[in-house]
Write a structure and sequence with these properties.
Number of strands: 10
Oligomer: single chain
Strand content: 15-25%
Shape: globular
Radius of gyration: 19 Å
Number of helices: 11
Structural class: alpha/beta
Largest sheet: 8 strands, mixed, barrel
Helix content: 40-55%
Distance between the termini: 34 Å
Bound molecules: ligand C2E, magnesium ion
């Protein structure tokens, strides 16, 4: 099912902000309609424990079912939504939907399940962001520990003190904070020093050639070693081969995410995936009788 969502489908949109003005206006109007008419959908990609193969959670990744243009990938509209401010409304929808879906999965018995939600720097710069998260958790009934926010390093480029303070308050509530695309920003280490993070996601740019390129291997091992000393969990993104997985496992990377395990998929397919690979909860108490 994921095959048809290949790159070629999206080529008509420019991924940066240099698209024609008229195209941008059209896209902005279309996106407004998408928000109103429910054309957006969250796909989910499993995050797997490297040692056991158990599914520990998933990342929510937005997709847009455009009425004429088909399935549109986030790179084609998130930057524009950030530019127009529509990311605020879109981000609220994502957060609420991800929490609702998480509640459904927890209700189906996946007790360890945790959902990771991408948050734009623009959202983090909103004064009400902490309240938004708190309200969404309360409304949906999701425990803060079941939610993780993925932020990029550039999130603390502006309004640093306020953003760090907001992240700290969310952290205090029990919400996880992961640095996404780690290593691709230009000042990763100084940000690590000030950000109240719980997890690092190694960018797939490093994982891709970890077997063939000694520098990429050294960088990946360095990140893992540093994270270990900081007591941070690490997820490797873009794990596509068994060789990637073996290297990462050997170097004590706890969590893996990538096409080797599954591509991002609609909620229903993900629920079925959990049911067949259904192992996210079997180390917990009740109902764990099936492996006796
Ligand atoms: P990201 O957060 O770094 O998400 C990981 C991206 O890598 C996803 O692309 C995922 O489909 C892709 N990926 C996962 N495993 C593999 C693999 O093994 N190989 C390869 N080649 N790619 C893999 P996607 O879904 O197109 O999302 C792209 C970016 O769009 C995300 O990068 C994130 O920055 C942004 N994004 C997605 N959903 C949201 C959202 O709800 N809100 C915001 N603000 N941004 C979002
Ligand atoms: Mg992410
Ligand atoms: Mg990433
Ligand atoms: Mg990325």
């Amino acid at each position: 099912r994921a095959k048809q969502h290949g790159r070629n489908t999206y080529q008509w949109f420019a991924s940066d902000l240099n698209v024609e003005a008229s195209e941008r206006v059209e896209l902005r109007n279309d996106l407004q309609r998408a928000l109103e008419q429910g054309q957006l959908e969250l796909f989910y990609q499993p995050i797997v424990e490297s040692r056991t193969g158990k599914i520990r959670g998933s990342e929510a990744l937005i997709r847009w079912h455009h009425p004429r243009r088909g399935l549109v990938a986030p790179i084609q509209f998130i930057p524009l939504a950030e530019d127009t401010g529509q990311i605020i409304e879109l981000g609220q929808w994502v957060l609420q939907q991800a929490c609702r879906d998480a509640i459904r999965l927890l209700g189906m018995g996946y007790r360890d399940y945790r959902v990771s939600v991408n948050v734009s720097p623009v959202q983090l710069r909103q004064e009400g962001f902490v309240d938004l998260v708190t309200d969404t958790l309360r409304q949906t009934g999701l425990a803060p520990e079941r939610l993780e926010l993925e932020i990029v390093e550039s999130s603390v480029l502006y309004d640093t003190d306020q953003v760090v303070d907001r992240l700290g308050r969310l952290r205090d509530l029990g919400v996880g904070i992961a640095i996404d695309d780690f290593g691709t920003g230009f000042s990763s280490l100084s940000y690590l020093k000030i950000m109240p993070v719980t997890k690092i996601k190694i960018d797939r740019a490093f994982v891709k050639d970890v077997i063939s390129n000694r520098r990429d291997a050294a960088i990946t091992q360095g990140i893992l070693s540093m994270a270990h000393h900081l007591s941070l969990e690490v997820v490797a993104e873009g794990v596509e081969t068994q060789a990637h997985a073996a290297f990462l496992r050997k170097n004590n990377c706890q969590l893996l995410q990538g096409y080797l395990f599954a591509r991002p998929m609609p909620f229903k397919a993900f629920a079925e995936f959990l049911a067949t690979r259904g192992n996210a909860s079997d180390n917990e108490d009740a109902g764990g009788t099936d492996d006796t």
